[in-house]
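Entry for the shared binder. Reason: the reviewer on the internal report wants the predicted structure included alongside the sequence.
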Amino acid sequence: ICKYGISDCLEFNPQDKSNCEKCADGYFLSSDKKSCVQCGVECQKCKSENECSKCVSEFTISNGHCTSCSVSSCDTCSTTECTNCQKGTYPVKENGIITGCSFCEDGCADCSAASSCSKCSYSYFLNTPPTSCSQCTVPFCSDCDSNIDECQKCLPGYFLEFNEVT
């Protein structure tokens, strides 16, 4: 059973479930460890309110701040071109240069081409072969491995209790 704890918390303190140890991307841990605070709008990962360590797509990091990229869904870019597409997308190239980034199939978090998934999104598991994703059936479950009815890990903000299946 997945029980609600702290919104956007990925890892709870094993001795005290009211304290968070690690927040989801886009959030940083408050000083009292009782909440996860949202980063700035262009920031995907941050250490504090004013220090970004990774930017959302279409932005690149410079001295802890995010500046705009030229290619949509680009994860990393130089000042002139996209060098890597964000997870959940794959590169579209012309003459060896990334000109765009296209989205992976539904439920796929990382792919190298349209139908070549290597990692599934929360609540999905990877079918191999083929390299596609199927959705878990346990509510608030993020990882059900190859058994869609048995939860291994809960979504952020929830924790697994007694490894029970609902």
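Summary line for the report: The two ends are 6 Å apart (CA to CA).
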